[in-house]
Amino acid sequence: MDLTVKSVDKQAIANAFGRAASKYDSVAKLQQQTGEYLMELAQAEDIGNRVLDAGCGTGSFSARWKCQGKQVIALDLAEGMLRHAQEQHAADYYLQGDMEHLGLAENSMDLCFSNLAVQWCNDLPSAIQEFYRVTRPGGLIVFSTLAQGSLHELKTAWEQVDDYQHINQFLPMQTILQACTPYRHKLITRQYCQYYPQLLPLLNSLKGIGATHLHHGRQRGLMTRKRLSALAEAYPRNNGSFSLSYQIVFGVIDCDK
Ligand SMILES: C[S@@+](CC[C@H](N)C(=O)[O-])C[C@H]1O[C@@H](n2cnc3c(N)ncnc32)[C@H](O)[C@@H]1O
């Protein structure tokens, strides 16, 4: 099976993130951490003024770039997210669109920045190709994404409760590497772990960041009290806490064209 090409329902993704927009910033701790690191990676290079924040969400990183005097385009699939970004005056321009088909001219950006968004694409190589197309020669692309192994504790626990698919499949590191191979690139992997005293806040935090939409199939079964306690029983504990780990890949691509 070709794992790079998925068949995602973009309207459903837009709806899931749109619903999450109002509470997103209060729960998106992982995105804040990875976004900070991604900014550091981008700032290590001498970049120009025009920044695209692809899959901007509520625009927290668009705003960070804007504060640094950059001219920022905030782009997202979800109208609800974009509206939130606009209310915060996070960027200079707002574009509702798909990062796999960017409605932007080639070579029009100095920096293409995308924090934890490309994992929602159908095809990682085509998203990267689009980033490359719109970034000028000498410009920079930085992105972060989730890799295989993320949420493994939850996956393991669900497997002991039922046979349904509850967790998205994330690309193996090798596949992410292949998508970057045509370009001069650097990949960095980091593991992040979050700890929760109980299972319900852990599940709510995933819901709060819109991450409960599945690429393949549908999540089945209502979360009854009985299922929740079966899941909690099966969940591997870490010093009594419910831990959730994420394998994050950071990509830095130099546009040599
Ligand atoms: C996990 S959020 C990350 C948001 C933001 N980058 C941050 O750091 O907080 C992922 C965002 O990507 C957006 N998204 C998903 N697929 C997309 C696509 N194909 N094109 C544009 N945006 C997309 C979602 O609507 C969501 O706002």
- Taken in chain order, the helices and strands follow as HHEHEHEEHEHHEHHEE
Radius of gyration: 18 Å
Number of helices: 9
Strand content: 15-25%
Distance between the termini: 32 Å
> Approximately how much helix is present in the residues?
25-40%
**Derived structural class:** alpha/beta
Find the CATH superfamily of the domain at 10-150 and 168-194 and 246-255: Vaccinia Virus protein VP39
CATH class annotation of the domain at 10-150 and 168-194 and 246-255: Alpha Beta
Fold-level CATH name of the domain at 10-150 and 168-194 and 246-255:
Rossmann fold
Largest sheet: 8 strands, mixed
Name the ligand types: S-adenosylmethionine
Mean pLDDT: 91
Form type: globular
- CATH architecture classification of the domain at 10-150 and 168-194 and 246-255: 3-Layer(aba) Sandwich
Query: Which ranges are low-confidence, i.e. pLDDT below 50, for 5 or more consecutive residues?
Result: none
Q: Find the count of extended strands (DSSP E, 2+ residues).
A: 8
